[in-house]
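Morning run. Coffee first, then this:
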Amino acid sequence: MADQLSRPPVRPEPEGRAGRIHARRTRAGRSQVAPRPVPSVEDMRILVTGGKGQLGTALQLALSEHQIRAPGHAALDVTSATAVREAIETFRAEIVIHAAAWTDTAAAERDPAAALAVNGEGSGNVARACAATGVPIAYVSSNEVFDGEKGAPYDEDDATQAINEYGRSKLAGEKAVEEAGGDFYIVRTSWLYGPGRLSFPEKIIDRARAGGALRGVTDEIASPTWTGDLAVALLALVSTGRFGLYHLAGEGSCSRKEWAEEVLRLAGIDAPVEAVLQADFGLPYRKPPHSTLTNRRAAELGITLRPWREALADHMSTPQIADLIEAPAAHR
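And here it is:
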């Protein structure tokens, strides 16, 4: 990856959706502020929204050698356009990685307006502030902008069609970023897990050690993505200056059941996982049945993520997981 990070910034010839967007904006003269030169990877001033979340935590670790500011929601509410503009200008950010998001799918279904306020309108606030100050934005989006009915992995040129309110709100965020008039990276990823909060592997281990029944959905398939790998790939991408739409997800795919079984295997826990369908949970929303992402455009730049099983093995070897596995059940 070191070779990727030292590559000088190059703007590509317009190609595909990302190129068409860039070409259209350039011809129309939409950007009123000249973008700053893409800084070298050694001296970037990086503002990360959502700094207390899973990805925000991983980004702070990956970017520790950079000048980084990563406020959480309490310190920076992205639904406030004024607060966002002030944060960018005060820090003199050279790139904004917009990782703040409403991620509770069930809550988004109950209150779609609230989810849209954060994921759609909030992302628009960040993108417009970036455009006004000449700062590129990297917006982290989701595999759930797709309906999952293609029957094969999705690449960046595939049509979007969200089937739940969370997905619709993330898609609204993508549109807001595209329309803001500045330079942007839109980065779709899927099934994030990592340090900083209780994520899917930790929940599986905790429930198994407590003796609870484990059920794994078989009709939801995607790509588990370790936030540590995504953070490094994001840094590589934003150092290229090649703006546009990208997918960055763990290589390969699995069902939730297969993911849970691999977690238990790596943890050395012998516990069965019952196969169930999404409908068995009686939820008021549906997840895309097969929304695996293929990282075609990033791979063309030499930026890759590891197979999901390999990345999961690294996550499972962290002290956080080791402590969870070894802790007496009564003290969890």
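The first strand starts at residue 45 and ends at 49. Good start to the day.
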